[in-house]
Write a structure and sequence with these properties.
The protein has 259 residues and is of the alpha+beta class. α7 packs across α8. The protein has a domain of 123 residues: Ribosomal Protein S8, Chain: A, domain 1. It is built from 8 helices and 5 strands. This is DNA mismatch repair protein MutS.
Length: 259
């Protein structure tokens, strides 16, 4: 028994290490183990768990928000895609025509304005009526100085003076200057001829209100009318139609083309 107790005590006694040899001194020393952290207090652990729960709730809410946005975006894209293919889905499969058979329509253009024609008419009007035209040789040498185109018989002027043709329109030149009267007369004759009128009256006045009591426009109107190709003949009006202060004019008939 005594031996067993002595052996047990020897085993429990710490062993003494022998001094390190030079080779052992060169080998690296084993790493030291870190001491375990000191236990935290119960109050600090509860506080940190509450913070962790708050962070987890925020992360969960953020994840739910992102999922809701993604879902709304997917639904909007799906609706747009469905609307884009609504017609094709409603109609079904189609086969393109080989020959489209389309009519190429021209755009309706507004009618052109005959500006040049208007300018030409205005220029011809100004050039065709001259104050320097000598009409004395073309007037019949009667007391009323009537006029008739070559080829028109005396019977025409006689019937015109007798009122065979009814007066259809009238132009009064009272109060107009010479240039105004010339332009008004040219336009009046042109428009009357286009309207198909045959007999018109031009009132030039007797000159009672003019200086010298002589008519200013009477001779000029005669010269202007002779230069108008639409005029066939003219005579002094009857007393009931103006007498010496007016002329009765016979116009060319309008030739209508057969369509």
């Amino acid at each position: 028994m005594a031996e067993k107790k002595a052996a047990a005590k020897a085993a429990m006694r710490p062993l003494r290490h022998a001094p390190a040899t030079p080779a052992a001194a060169d080998s690296p020393a084993p790493p030291r183990r870190r001491a375990p952290p000191a236990p935290r207090r119960a109050g600090e652990r509860i506080t940190q768990l509450q913070d962790l729960a708050t962070v987890a709730r925020r992360l969960r809410e953020e994840q739910e928000r992102r999922e809701a946005e993604d879902k709304a975006r997917r639904e909007a894209a799906a609706r747009a895609e469905a609307e884009r293919h609504l017609f094709s889905r409603s109609v079904g499969p189609v086969t393109p025509l080989r020959n489209p058979n389309l009519a190429r329509l021209r755009r309706h253009q507004p009618p052109p304005l005959p500006v040049q024609h208007w300018l030409d008419e205005e220029r011809v009007l100004m050039e065709s009526i001259s104050d320097d035209f000598d009409v004395s040789t073309l007037l019949d040498t009667d007391d009323q100085l009537s006029f008739r185109r070559p080829g028109i018989g005396v019977e025409i002027t006689r019937r015109l003076r007798a009122g065979h043709w009814s007066i259809q329109r009238q132009l009064d030149l009272h109060g107009l200057r010479v240039d105004e009267a010339r332009e008004a007369l040219g336009d009046f004759i042109r428009q009357a001829h286009k309207a198909g009128l045959r007999c018109v009256r031009v009132v030039h006045g007797k000159g009672l209100g003019s200086p010298g009591k002589s008519p200013v426009l009477k001779g000029r109107v005669q010269r202007w009318l002779v230069q108008k190709s639409e005029v066939l003949a003219f005579v002094q009006a009857r007393p009931m139609d103006g007498g010496a202060g007016a002329l009765v004019v016979l116009l060319q008939p309008v030739l209508h083309r057969n369509t």
